C-alpha cells in the first residue's frame, strides 16, 4: 500500500549529469538550512538537497514497491556520469521504518548530490550540473535554552518494562529483546540541522552522520553495504560506559570479557548471518568481536564480509531486497524475531517510526550503504526534536544499568543540540 502518491520528474528534468568537482572543505557545510540529506563519515560520502522525486510507502510490500519505483525512475533517465563510481549518477536517499509493514518509509531523490570517495569529488544534478554553493561558515550559533520532557515512558516505568522483559526471558519465552525509549526536547529558537550534523560528525568520526527527511543522527552500526557483489556489515551489540583514566581501560576489558554482553552480541551477529547467508556464495565473520570506542560509549563490534551469489535467484536480489531480508536484526529487535517484535509492541508503549530502521542510500547500479538509524532524533516542527535510545535486554540485564545506557546514548544527540 502506498501512502502518498509517488512523484516522478517532469520530462524536461530527465537528464542527470555527474561531473568531477573537488569541493573544498566539509561536505556537510554545503547543506541548505532545511531539507538537507546526508550520509557522511570521515569527510567522505554524500550530501544532497532538493527533491526531484519522492516516495512514501507502507505495507507488506513496501520495500519491493520502493525497489520497483527506483528501477522505473532510473530506467526513464538520461544519465551522463563521467565517474561511474558507487554514489555517482542518480542517487536515492532512504529512511525505512523500523516496521515497514506498519510505519512509513521515505525515499527521496535529491535534485543535487555532492559526493566524495577516496579523495575524489563530484557533483550530480538533474539537468546540467550547477555551481557548488558557498559553504556555510560554521560557528557555534546561539546558546539554546532547551526543555526536556519524558517521551512515552518516564524512567521508572521504562525500568519496570525492562524488569518485565527480563522476567519473560527468565521464563524461557525468548532470549533477547531490544527496548528503547524516547525523550522530547524543545528549544527557545529554531534548531539548525546543519549545526547538529556538523557537531555529530566532529564528535563521532567513526559513525555515519545521516539526515533524511527530518531524521538526523550519527550511527555506529552498518546494516549492509553493497559494492558490486561485495557485501559488508558492522554488527554492534554489547555496550559499556566510558570511564575516566584507568577506569576506562578496566571497563573496556570487562566488556570484552562479559559473558552477558558476549551472548547478546552473538545473537545479533547470528541473526544477520542467518538472514544474509541464503544470498551469499561466501560470508565471513571473525570469531572474536572487537571493541568500538566512541566518545560516549564502547561497543562490541563484528565486521562481516560476503560475496553475493553469482547464480540463482539470490544473484538478482537488489540492495533493498537484501536490506528487507536482514532487517530487523537482533541488534535492534531480538531473538526470536517475532517474539521480540511482539514484546516490543507490548512493553515499549511508543511508535518507533523510523528510529532503528535502515537509513542510507542506493545508486542506479544497485550499490549503496544502509546503517541502522541509531543515536538519532526526529525533528518536530522547527524548534523541537524526539530523541531515541535503546538497549539489548538479555538474562541478567539490570534495569538501572540499562537506563544509564540509554542516557549515555541520548547524550550523543544532546551534545549536538547543546554544542
Ligand atoms: C538500540 C540501540 O543500539 C543498539 C544496541 C546496543 C546494545 O544494547 O548494546 C548496541 C548497539 C546497537 O546495536 C540504540 O542506540 O538505540
From TrEMBL:
Q: Which reaction(s) does its UniProt entry say it catalyses?
A: chorismate = isochorismate
- What EC number(s) are associated with this protein in UniProt? 5.4.4.2
Q: What keywords tag this UniProt record?
A: Isomerase
**Which terms in the Gene Ontology molecular function aspect does this entry carry?**
isochorismate synthase activity
InterPro entries hit by this protein: ADC_synthase (IPR005801), Chorismate_C (IPR015890), IsoChor_synthase (IPR004561)
Q: Where is the Chorismate-utilising enzyme C-terminal domain?
A: 156-409
Q: Does the keyword Signal apply?
A: no
The text of the family note is: Belongs to the isochorismate synthase family.
Q: Which PANTHER family match?
A: ISOCHORISMATE SYNTHASE ENTC
**Which protein are we looking at?**
isochorismate synthase
> Source species, please?
Blastococcus saxobsidens
